[in-house]
Design brief:
Blueprint: E1 4-10, E2 14-22, E3 28-37, H1 50-69, E4 75-79, H2 81-85, H3 89-100, E5 104-106, H4 109-123, E6 131-136, E7 141-147, E8 150-157, H5 161-167, H6 176-189, H7 191-199, E9 204-207, H8 210-219, E10 228-232, H9 233-244, H10 248-252, H11 265-278, E11 283-287, H12 291-299
Parallel strand pairs: 1-4, 4-5, 6-9, 9-11
Antiparallel strand pairs: 1-2, 2-3, 6-7, 7-8, 10-11
Helix pairs in contact: 1-3, 4-12, 9-11
């Protein structure tokens, strides 16, 4: 049996399963890949709701069956922001162990950011510019600065989309004053990032989360390389203006927005807009790889 490895990335909004197999050139090929929206952070992240708790348990029971089908014993299952801080997070981890025999390891925000950095650098290994990575999750947002192809700074901030939704319920469509409130909050919470961007100014923003996939799908962006695509900043601004003027029903009908992201995508674009303007971004790059692939580089 060829070497196989699985990653279970248990995020605050989505659970991911990736099963890979080593190839002759010491790379890997994907055997199975699935993403399920469990929305652990829908209550703000301090507690996992009963609905999300049971949905997530069912997801991992199914994932365990898939691991068995593919004869995979070598795996890593990592829990992130919501499982780090939810009061019933330990109960969830114990329940998963009892029902599936899957052992979930909790990682801190900086370790999460390091994995993301490894994954994105793999995807952008031939990319010639310095850049800022932004990974938007349900419970946290990670930022990593890459200069001369090296990680020079990483930090995780507890301002994920589930957190923002809980703190800032908004009108449909969102009102200008509500956007201002969110941006003022971000201005305060991201002081360390603003300082770092002053020390190391960068004009290329690299996104590595599902929210950035919506941006790519909205414009049917063609890949410039095997594992990433690039978008002119003007196209991003056009999409941002479109998103903030749509109400929830209009977003649900938008071909680029998965139904599971309808309630959060406006907040994601406000985050992207705030960061890109602060760094005076000229282009946005969308990476196919993120935390899952970064874990593979470290363990397989």
């Amino acid at each position: 049996m060829p070497d196989r490895f699985a990653v279970l990335d248990l995020g605050s909004n989505t659970f991911h399963l990736l099963i890979v197999e080593k190839t002759y050139n010491n790379s890997f090929k994907t055997l199975y890949k699935e993403r399920r929206y469990t929305k652990l952070s829908e209550g703000g992240g301090s507690i996992i709701s009963e609905r999300s708790f049971q949905k997530a348990i069912k997801c991992l029971v199914d994932f365990k069956e898939i691991l068995t089908q593919y004869s995979v014993n070598n795996y890593k299952a990592f829990g992130t922001a919501t499982l780090r801080k939810a009061s019933n997070g330990p109960l969830f981890i114990e329940s998963v162990l009892q029902k599936t025999q899957l052992n979930i390891e909790i990682i801190d925000g900086n370790q999460e950011a390091q994995f993301i950095a490894h994954g994105v650098q793999w995807a952008l290994k031939d990319f010639p510019k310095d850049y800022l990575i932004m990974d938007i999750g349900g419970g946290s947002v990670e930022f990593i600065q890459i200069i001369n192809q090296k990680v020079v700074w990483v930090q995780s901030f507890a301002i994920g989309l589930g957190v923002l939704k809980n703190l800032f319920p908004h009108s449909e469509p969102i009102r200008p004053n509500e956007i201002v409130q969110i941006e003022q909050f971000l201005k305060t919470k991201l002081t360390a990032l603003w300082k770092q961007l002053t020390l190391n100014p960068l004009s290329c923003l690299v996104g590595s989360s599902g929210s950035f996939e919506v941006l790519a799908d909205a414009h049917k962006v063609k890949k410039r390389a095997k594992h990433y695509s690039q978008l002119d900043f003007g196209l991003f601004l056009h999409t941002y203006q479109e998103m903030i003027h749509l109400d929830s029903m209009q977003r649900a009908q938008h071909p680029a927005i998965p139904v599971e992201r309808v309630d959060l995508i406006v907040l994601a674009f406000i985050l992207m807009h705030k960061i890109s303007f602060k760094m005076n971004a000229r282009e946005i790059v969308i990476s196919d790889f993120a935390m899952k692939e970064g874990i593979i580089t470290q363990y397989f």
